[in-house]
């Protein structure tokens, strides 16, 4: 029996899994706002370890309709049994993006290891810093190595898709997990009712009185998905810069795939291949920036 069939006591509709530096902030912002307006309880955890004593009990205790797990470990989320989507990135770009983020922009809050790592990076040249980043990022890349990319419940997506078509990718993901209204006719009556419910739900997260009349919606509308994706587009978060324009002090530094080729030197490439060559092969990335196999489909 799947969790969603458990007499309504386990209402999880879908899950989103990802990893450090894989467009996680974009998806978390979009999902949080969509779930707020839909009246759905949504939470994210950085690792399942934060959801003690188990991820199932965490979901049930918080009455979650949607869950996001960043730095997801397959063996700890596979048992949820709900439709999900999973976003990965070229491991080499994860290293480069991580290096610049850890050097300057990523928050150190609740991450004492980053404070020490940042001090070290700021004392090193870029090449030596990237070599140090290869060791520091093992905690993230090991999760890619142990992931199962053939789980029929999980749609596999890539950062490269998000970068080239963010709106289409978000729609694809949420259609796949079955939460977009399949009968979105666009009638005035349906749209008016949906907007009224969204307004009440939004207030319910701000005012205790409105929690009593929260009206959870059965589905999301495709229009709302695109609206919130647009509101959180790269150029807005990057304060007017387009993808490819670099600001090394920004969390949204560059936003394009293949940037590793601008920063990897022979010593970095050699160490990467020694540590993570099997990760590159398993995730389907080759010497080019494109994956060598297609994502799965329902």
Walk me through the structure.
By secondary structure, the protein is an alpha/beta fold. The protein has a domain at 3-90 and 146-184 and 219-257: Rossmann fold, CATH 3.40.50. The protein has 14 helices and five strands. The protein has helices at 24-38, 55-61, 74-77, 91-105, 112-121, 126-136, 138-145, 159-164, 166-176, 188-204, 208-211, 222-231, 234-237, 266-283, and strands spanning 14-18, 42-45, 66-70, 84-88, 154-158. It has a five-stranded parallel beta sheet with strand order 2-3-1-4-5. Strand 2 (42-45), helix 2 (55-61) and strand 3 (66-70) form a beta-alpha-beta unit. Helix 1 crosses helix 12 and helix 4 (91-105) packs across helix 6. The chain is elongated and about 65 Å long. The two termini are 20 Å apart. Residues 1-9 and 290-298 have low confidence and may be disordered.
Q: How much beta, percentage-wise?
A: 5-15%
Q: Gap between N and C termini, in Å?
A: 20 Å
Q: What name goes with the CATH superfamily of the domain at 3-90 and 146-184 and 219-257?
A: P-loop containing nucleotide triphosphate hydrolases
The stretches of 5 or more residues where confidence is low (pLDDT under 50) are 1-9, 290-298
Instruction: Quickly name the level 1 CATH class of the domain at 3-90 and 146-184 and 219-257.
Output: Alpha Beta
Order of helices and strands: EHEHEHEHHHHEHHHHHHH
Which radius of gyration do the C-alpha atoms yield? 20 Å
Total strands: the figure is 5
Q: What's the mean pLDDT score?
A: 81
> Which sheet architecture does the biggest sheet show?
5 strands, parallel
């Amino acid at each position: 029996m799947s969790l969603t069939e458990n007499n309504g006591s386990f209402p999880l509709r879908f899950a989103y899994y990802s990893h450090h530096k894989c467009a996680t902030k974009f998806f978390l912002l979009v999902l949080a706002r969509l779930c707020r307006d839909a009246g759905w309880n949504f939470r994210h955890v950085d690792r399942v370890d934060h959801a003690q004593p188990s991820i199932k009990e965490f979901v049930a205790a918080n009455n979650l309709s949607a869950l996001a797990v960043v730095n997801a470990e397959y063996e700890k989320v596979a048992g949820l049994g709900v439709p999900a989507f999973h976003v990965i990135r070229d491991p080499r770009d994860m290293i480069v993006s991580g290096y610049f983020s850890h050097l300057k922009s990523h928050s150190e809050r609740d991450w004492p290891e980053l404070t020490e790592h940042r001090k070290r990076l700021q004392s090193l040249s870029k090449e030596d810093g990237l070599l140090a980043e290869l060791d520091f990022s093992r905690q993230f890349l090991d999760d890619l190595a142990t992931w199962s990319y053939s789980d029929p419940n999980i749609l596999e997506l890539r950062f490269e898709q998000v970068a080239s078509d963010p709106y289409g990718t978000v729609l694809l993901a949420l259609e796949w997990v079955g939460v977009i209204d399949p009968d979105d006719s666009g009638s005035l009556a349906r749209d008016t009712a949906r907007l009224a419910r969204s307004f009440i739900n939004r207030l319910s997260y701000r005012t205790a009185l409105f929690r009593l009349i929260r009206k959870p919606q059965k589905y999301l509308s495709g229009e709302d998905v695109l609206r919130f994706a647009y509101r959180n587009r790269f150029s807005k978060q990057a304060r007017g810069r387009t993808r490819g324009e670099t600001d090394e002090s920004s969390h949204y530094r560059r936003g394009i795939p293949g940037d590793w080729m601008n920063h990897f030197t022979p010593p970095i490439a050699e160490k990467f291949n020694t540590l993570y060559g099997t990760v590159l092969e398993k995730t389907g990335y080759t010497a080019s920036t494109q994956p060598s196999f297609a994502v799965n489909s329902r």
